[in-house]
Amino acid sequence: MALDFGFGFVAGVTGTIAGYPFDTVKVRLQTQTLSHRLYSGSLDCFIKIAKQESVLGFYKGMSSPMFGVALINGIVFSVQNFSKVLFEDPNTYAALAATGAIAGGVQASICSPIELIKTRLQMQGIGQQRKLFTLSTNLYKGPIDCLNKSYTRQGFRYGVMRGLSMTLARDIPSFAAYFPAWQFFVSHFSPTGKEADMPMYMSLIGGAFTGIAAWTVSYPFDVIKSRYQAAREHVYKNVWDCTVKSLRTEGWRVFTRGFVPCTIRAIPTNAFTYPVYAFLKQTFDTPRDDDSIITTTTTTKPVTKLQSSSSSLTEKQSITPIQSI
Question: Region Disordered: what ranges (predicted)?
Fold first, then answer.
């Protein structure tokens, strides 16, 4: 469990760096309104950020999620693998969905404030040139300052944990879809039906496929979460008010805003996250030679059974990739 946490942590850092520019574009598109429209689409948003804010503009607020996502990935990997003991056959689609949902629910309380900080830092200083990650006119100086001001203004429940319900609504179905989608891809595209036997390029395609599947079932909740967390406190009474007002003023398409950069983001994110996690797990989490040595007893039948069971568990060891927030 500790190794899974460490591997997920390292993989989360690399995946976040790779996919973060697309996440910034996603959040910008999700939070703009018809009355204050800055970007006509994903490409226009990319171009304007690059021109007005330089390449550093894509990485606003990255320090919080870079380590936060790594922590979350470590939790998800650990909880999902640990939860498998609850099922007789943990590799069924139902069991994978259940363990994924459990992992998604557990990490949401940590993910929500990290998402709050990330979203608010991504939204400040729009159109302003960045220099060494600082601005002359900042509402927030950094992640800690953002967290402190959110707590000072509205306390823990309504400030720091603002948007927790939408984070839960997003992450439980998202992770419940992610793990079965990965299993489906492996079953149909691995020559032997095993993860370890898939070529690397297929693993990368599979990571993108599962990431898109997870976002598809949960994306409307992510839109509301971003809008609610980014808005000033008096704009929406609660997440339901945010949902109703967004739907009434902008129609159902508001729930799909930013979906294109979100799905594109799944490609570089998983292209880095999966290989790093798989490499670390295969390199450092291999069974030792003495693990198969069992003390000799007067009966040989139980010994054979234990050796067979140990071998079977080793063969079924999972190196499932994970998405990033």
Answer: 306-325
C-alpha to C-alpha distance for 245 and 250, rounded to whole angstroms: 8
Candidates 142, 135, 137, 136; CA nearest to 120 is 142
Write the pLDDT tens digit of every residue in 287-316: 554 444 444 344 444 444 444 444 443 444
pTM assigned to the model: 0.78
Euclidean distance between CA atoms 258 and 237, whole angstroms: 24
Rounded to 5 degrees, what angle do the CA atoms 288, 291, 296 make?
145
Geometric angle at alpha carbon 120, from 114 and 122, rounded to 5°: 100
> SS3 of 134, please?
strand
Residue 5: C-alpha distances to residues 80, 102, 229 (Å): 11, 16, 28
Number of Cβ within 10 Å of residue 298's Cβ equals 4
d(CA 80, CA 180): 12
Both structure tokens of 173: 């179905």
Q: What CATH number is given for 2-315 in this structure?
A: 1.50.40.10
Q: Could you give phi then psi for residue 196, rounded to 5 degrees?
A: -65, -20
